[in-house]
Amino acid sequence: MLRVLACLALCAGSAHADDGGRAAGATGGYLHTAGLDGGTAAVWWQEPLGAALTIDGEIGVAIATTSTTTAATLANPHARARYRLAPTTWLELALTLPAASRRGDGGAVAAAMAAAHRADPTAWLPRATTLAAGGGRRWANRLGELSVAAGLALTLRTDADALPLVHVDLAGAVALTDTVGLTAGFATTSYALVEPRDETFVHTLALGGRYRDCRVTVDLALEVPVDARDRALDTLMATAAVAWRL
Q1: Which of 1, 141, 189, 244 shows the smallest number of beta carbons within 10 Å?
Q2: pLDDT at 69
Q3: Rounded to an integer, what distance in angstroms lies between the CA atom of residue 200 and that of residue 204?
């Protein structure tokens, strides 16, 4: 399968360290939707290779109950190389490799997770390999921060037709104190290029908070769907992420 994902993101960043130094972290989440209740967990690391280049990688797992069973699946691991043109401007290449379960109960969980993450199912698609390229820039001051990133990705799957997607994320953060802020994000994925299709766009809204000091960043967020289809399924996601600068 060939999937083209064009991504334009305007965001306040995540718990992933963004200063180009050595860092590590973890993320966790809870997902509820029709026929699926489960949790996800992942660990990631970031390593500098010189003054301007960093590499990072992430691997995760999901344990969920579907309408028939409870099982676990790996997420597709993700690796990225980022080159900094300036302290707040970067270019990057990323690779996602297939590891999600393909058969049995684990395969059912992976399929359900991919279907629930319609804004970006890349991490849970079985038999999927994604190559992505992009870049971005971040702005920050005492009032908050903002960043913009754009990229192009190709996903190959061996057992499905082409799935071209256009993805747009908008988000920001407002500082309440020197260490605490509020975050908000709006994500849009276009299925306009998918044939056959029963919709053109998928939208989600995320609201949360952040704690950040010189060593640790903690993000908490609640993500809810905007579209009637997902709201009818009572879809709800809650996430927590922490990063340590080493």
Answers
A1: 141
A2: 84
A3: 14
Judged on CB neighbours under 10 Å (0-12, 13-18, 19+), 232 is: exposed
- DSSP, collapsed to helix, strand or coil, labels residue 172 as strand
Cα–Cα distance, 50 to 132 (Å, whole number) = 22
pLDDT beyond 50 at 203: yes
d(CA 33, CA 97): 26
Taking residues 218-243, what's their average pLDDT? 89
Q: Is 93 exposed, middle or buried (0-12, 13-18, 19+ CB in 10 A)?
A: middle
Using CB atoms within 10 Å of the CB of residue 228, give its burial: 0 to 12 exposed, 13 to 18 middle, 19+ buried: exposed
Contacts of residue 198, defined as CB under 8 A and 6 or more positions apart, other chains included, come to none
Take residue 209 and report the two structure tokens written for it: 């908070």
Neighbour count for residue 115 (Cβ, 10 Å) = 13
* Cβ-contact 23, 16 below 8 angstroms: yes
121/159 Cα distance (integer angstroms):
15
The CA distance from 203 to 190, in Å, is 9
What is the per-residue pLDDT for 18?
Answer: 63
Phi, psi of 8 (to 5 degrees): -125, 120
CA distance 98 to 122: 10
Does pLDDT of 10 surpass 50? Answer: no
What confidence tens digit (pLDDT) does each residue in 167-180 have? Answer: 778 788 999 999 99
Give tens-digit pLDDT for 57-79: 999 999 999 887 899 999 999 99
Whether the upstream peptide bond of residue 196 has omega within 30° of 0, thus cis, is yes
